[in-house]
Specification:
heterodimer, A: alpha+beta, Alpha-Beta Plaits, 8-stranded mixed beta sheet, 13 helices, 8 strands, 60% helix, elongated, B: alpha+beta, 2 domains, 14 helices
Chain lengths: 354, 350
């Protein structure tokens, strides 16, 4: 059975969690028991495996949509609490069940056994394991949640210092903005504008992530999305992203209409080229892209609003992409861009089965 | 000289960290359930106190400029080595001292005894050290990330200060490198990026010492904001700009030798109500929304037309008790498309 991209991502995440769970289980047993009986290790591995699996399921299906509603600190507390409860229950049960085999008795007899409740629960290492779990659940959730706030891959890039020295990269860029944002600001006022943009950008998340894009930055009402060249070209991911976002907005249009009185229309410019990627700034550090490609992309977006076209892509990009059959391209000819010497050949991309 | 009050902030941070350190220290013997052993219960918090004080001194009070030009991972490794050495020594010292007191001997003779050998090689010393270091690595990781994210950003995310958008009155400064397009073409992308990095790096202290918060870098532009009550006293927002100018001027030789030019820049200032709120999910930013952002950007762009390096909205200048060192000159009125025109002045330093 072929898996969709979404399912593959979920599978990958699940695998990561399970591996980390098993490793932490082994580490814990090592610290508490050293190189001792095998059954300690089996317990550790079973506990780690179950916990990893459970957390993956929770993360992928329960918490994945919570970020919009809840404050960081409440979400963190909730996560920590639920993890903690589940993990404690799992540890308790795995230990009981393993003793059940070891002592060859029944579940409740184990519970009633003094060796269990007195030696293990009260005076043994159960409480240590519980606190260890609580601390780990807190720290891991905390770092994962910050990492998500920083943007895809950002924390890792900072830690590894990947862009500490400037690096040349060939990338695809899509600049997306809302049609008539200044008018929206005037009509809604800044407070409602914030709510509106937050709702709108929220609808970007799934289309961008599933099409392998990276949300790089929000500048007022502009969203900068970028792909590594191969990821953006494959399957025409970069073009699909635009139409996927449009579809997401379309499926939520009633909510937009009720809340803000209009349905947002988005325009996008797509371009590819070489950029310099580097960390910049000290007390606040950003990983930035510099280069002509950025300027050109923003000029292409300007053309969109000038010509009232939804999606314009440069010739360089279109030549690399095998356009899927549902999309069509219409040449706009060579076009002058503000502040650019050379004219650029642009294409309008449309959804043929709109 | 004007007074620098950022001390209180440092002090607050220090106290928080030391308290956390003591609690983490207390946690260890608690986990081991050594409640009957007063010595062990005391050792934990004492070690926590010494180690976190060292951390505070090192991270907050003692600034080492060499770190600024090191990779994140290098800094992390360097600090880990530094701290592990210090922690091992502290832990051994404190425990030995406690045992020596317990056994009514002095430290030196305790260190010569078998008990000391047992402490180092037979007991749970390695666990204590690993415990301390783990706490330390997590702390430094979070601290470094917090620095990367910008002043207060991480904290505001955590407490969710701007989870629901709120209105604030803020001063904005848009600062922009002159002739950046030509410079970029002349230098090439990589060298241009280095120039920008040096430039932003050099002006950072001027901004922070005057209580500015760096909002973001967009291309060659840096956007700085002040809460009204932080920026107005002593005209801090203006001082940030002029101090940055002085810093770049002092570094002119370095720039000339590395890039063949000395960067010059212009700035626009205005204040107004903005909405501050978190935005985005898979990447979140704390963003400002409001007319004042458009207006200030426009003021900055108008500097060239008025042949001055700064334009300040008059309404903002009216709020400031102007320090004697600044001279204000009327520059008329800037028209902004879709917005009300703004009366502006330029400021020079005597």
């Amino acid at each position: 059975m072929a898996l969709t991209f979404n399912q593959r991502v979920k599978l990958k995440v699940t695998r990561q969690f399970v591996v980390v769970g098993v490793l932490l289980g082994i580490v814990y047993i090592f610290f508490v028991w050293g190189f001792s009986d095998l059954w300690h290790y089996i317990n550790g591995i079973v506990i780690g495996f179950t916990i990893g699996l459970l957390i993956a399921i929770l993360e992928l299906f329960v918490f994945s949509r919570g970020a919009k509603k809840l404050r960081f600190i409440w979400l963190l507390t909730l996560r920590t609490f639920i993890y903690f409860t589940l993990i404690t229950l799992i540890i308790f049960n795995v230990v009981v069940i393993s003793r059940l085999f070891l002592w060859d008795t029944s579940y409740f007899e184990v519970l009633a056994d003094e060796r269990f409740y007195k030696d293990y629960l009260i005076e043994g290492d159960f409480s240590v394991a519980v606190v260890y779990t609580l601390i780990l659940a807190f720290v891991i959730n905390f770092i994962r949640m910050i990492s998500r706030k920083m943007g895809q891959g950002m924390m890792l890039s900072f830690i590894q210092g990947t862009y500490y020295a400037p690096v040349h990269q060939a990338r695809i860029f899509m600049f997306v903005n809302v049609v008539g944002s200044k008018k929206i600001l005037h009509d809604l006022g800044p407070l409602k504008l914030h709510g509106f943009l937050n709702d709108l950008f929220y609808d970007f998340t799934v289309p961008v992530v599933t099409n392998r894009g990276v949300i790089y930055e929000y500048i007022e009402d502009l969203v900068v999305i970028t792909w590594a060249l191969d990821k953006g070209i494959r399957n025409a991911n970069c073009i699909r992203t635009y139409f996927d976002i449009k579809e997401t907005i379309n499926s939520n249009k009633e909510e937009y209409l009720n809340k803000y009185g209009f349905i947002p229309q988005i325009q996008a410019g797509l371009h590819t080229g070489s950029v310099v990627r580097a960390e910049i700034g000290e007390v606040k550090t950003q990983i930035v892209f510099h280069g002509d490609t950025m300027n050109t992309t923003s000029r292409i977006l300007e053309k969109c609003s000038e010509l009232n076209i939804d999606l314009l892509a440069s010739d360089q990009l279109i030549r690399m992409i095998g356009l899927p059959r549902i999309y069509g391209k219409k040449t706009m000819g060579e076009i002058d861009l503000r502040g650019k010497q050379d004219r650029l050949k642009l294409f309008e991309v449309i959804d043929k089965v709109d | 000289m004007y007074k620098n009050k950022s001390l209180s902030r440092k002090q607050k941070d220090s106290i928080t960290i030391i308290i956390i350190g003591i609690l983490i220290g207390l946690l260890y013997p608690t986990l081991d359930r050594e409640f009957n052993d007063l010595g062990k219960m005391l050792n934990g918090p004492i070690i926590g106190f010494i180690c976190s004080s060292f951390l505070v001194l090192n991270e907050i009070w003692y600034k080492r400029p060499i770190f600024r030009h090191m990779k994140f991972i290098t800094v992390l490794v360097y600090k880990s080595v530094l701290y592990s050495t210090f922690y091992v020594l502290t832990i051994v010292f404190v425990i030995s001292l406690q045992r020596a007191i317990e056994n009514n001997t002095n430290l030196i003779s305790f260190m010569g005894s078998d008990a000391f050998y047992n402490l180092i090689f037979k007991e749970d010393l390695y666990l204590i050290v690993i415990y301390g270091l783990t706490a330390n690595v997590v702390f430094i990781l979070v601290y470094q990330i917090s620095r990367k994210m910008g002043q207060g950003v991480l904290w505001n995310f955590i407490i969710g200060k701007y989870h629901r958008a709120r209105e604030e009155e803020r001063i904005f400064m848009f600062m922009d490198l002159n002739n950046s397009t030509e410079i970029a073409e002349g230098l090439g992308d990589i060298a241009y990026n280095k120039l920008l990095n040096d430039f932003f790096f050099d002006i950072t202290d001027s901004i922070i010492e005057n209580y500015g918060e760096i909002y973001r870098y967009v291309g060659d532009e840096v956007v700085v904001s002040w809460k009204l009550k932080k920026g107005l006293p002593n005209a801090y927002f203006l001082r940030a700009f002029f101090q940055a100018k002085r810093v770049i001027h002092n570094q002119r030789e370095k720039y000339l030798e590395s890039y063949g030019l000395v960067p010059s820049f212009t700035a626009g200032f205005n204040y107004g109500k903005v909405i501050v709120g978190e935005i985005g999910e898979v990447k979140s930013q704390i963003c400002f929304f409001g007319d004042v952002l458009y207006e200030t950007a426009k003021l900055e762009k108008s500097c060239k037309k008025y042949s001055t390096d700064n334009l300040v909205a008059k309404s903002l200048l009216n709020l400031v008790a102007m320090p004697l060192i600044f001279t204000v000159k009327d520059e008329g009125r800037v028209e902004i498309e879709d917005f009300e025109p703004i009366d502006v002045s330029s400021v020079t330093e005597k």
